[in-house]
Amino acid sequence: MTGMRAILAVVALVLAALALPAAVGAPAVAGALDLYEPRSDGAPEPVEPAGPVEHDSSKPTAAVVVGERGAVVSDTLAPYEILARTGGFNVYTVASEMQPVPLTGGLDLLPDLTFAGLEELLGGSADVVVVPAMPDVGQPTTKPVTDWLVRQENDGATLLSVCNGAAVLASAGLLDGREATAHWLRIDEWESTYPDVDWVRGTRYVDDGDVVSTAGILSGIDGTLHVVARTLGADAAAQAARAIEWPHHDPDGASPIEQSQLEASDAVVVFNTAFGWDRPRIGVQLTDGVGEVELASVFDTYGQSLAVGTVAVGDGAVQSRHGLTFVPRAETGAGLDRLVVPGTTGHEVEPGMVATHPHREPGFAYDAVLQDLARTTDVATARWTAKALEYPVDGLRLEGEAWPWTETVRPLALALLGVVLALAGYALARRWRRRPRKAAADPSGHREGMPR
What we know:
By secondary structure, this protein is of the alpha/beta class. It has 13 helices and 17 strands. The chain has helices spanning 2-32, 73-86, 115-122, 143-154, 165-171, 187-193, 219-232, 234-243, 268-275, 292-305, 365-376, 379-389, 405-434; strands at residues 61-65, 90-95, 101-103, 107-110, 113-114, 128-131, 158-161, 179-180, 198-199, 205-208, 211-214, 281-285, 309-313, 318-319, 325-327, 338-340, 355-356. The protein has a seven-stranded mixed sheet, sandwiched between helices. It has a four-stranded antiparallel sheet with strand order 3-4-15-14, with no helix packed on it. Strand 14 (318-319) and strand 15 form a beta hairpin. Helix 2 packs parallel to helix 7 and helix 7 (219-232) runs antiparallel to helix 8. The longest helix has 31 residues, at 2-32. It is globular. This is DJ-1/PfpI family protein.
């Protein structure tokens, strides 16, 4: 009996140690993992596109589709800029309705065309359709997208899924009996959910004829360059890779990659999400003419880290280098920790704001942002982020604190507090049980248990 009591006591203390960190951390994790953060002020004011859509009927047309609940920012903007950089495509973003949709990190994009508008413009399907990861895979809200994708495929479009955009295609039945790949973190889930797909691991992209699928996030660059090479030739793909300074272009085919798995060091993301209570909020200054990859590099790097929040800042809608329309969520950086200005460096910033211009120096846009993330948070967080982006950083110099020690100590302190409270409660309960009891009196005036 004594041994059983000891075991129960240990179990009780363990539960007490876990209770407070779990109670505090679980809601924070749930909130941080929602990368598709909706606008806190509801829908923005109606925004008109920059101008009428230009179309050259002699060029193939590429459409980058976004769902009404949004898409991953790098999955959307990196293929868009690569295709636009070639000069060989008409490139449009399309959605079911003409209203701003959220990209991860809180960047709102106004699509160029609706599905109906694109079909009216072309008189049929696009030549290439890019499908980024979306937050509502398999849910009724994706039906306008999946129905449109089925029509595009039936009419002969080449489908390019980026990252977990493969699951969007799979949910529409467009990958049944085909080989495909997706982000390393969720490919097991998709294999279970969509067993009729032959899921492939350890490669940056899979070419299955009229469907090309890519692995995680920045592997979408390789898949897009592959589609460019198929459509316009290898020279056009190489020029586009140089234009965005992508260091991993392989003209000979899909580069093999080591299939990532969760490791002990990835616990950094748990500490950041559950116990990063004071995580910094960064204003991202939207400016006319900013490159789409530069913009994505800021919103996705900080966003995927789960250690930093971003807010799109600007005075009204802006147009990117290749004509996309973005809508800010705040007019100023007031109340934010600092300001980051992607792309060009000549724009004035608000007085009193500390501004970072990560793209002053040449190089692939994500490099400088990852280095800034390492300096301002820690190296472990930057390495997790690169892993989530599926971007090799072995040759990239990352400097900063090694680990988020403050966020790591917080759950330990909460666990200790839980144990102390449990022991205090146990001591009080024992004192209560052992307190002296007053003897009950009988009607004759004698107390129970006393000699008469």
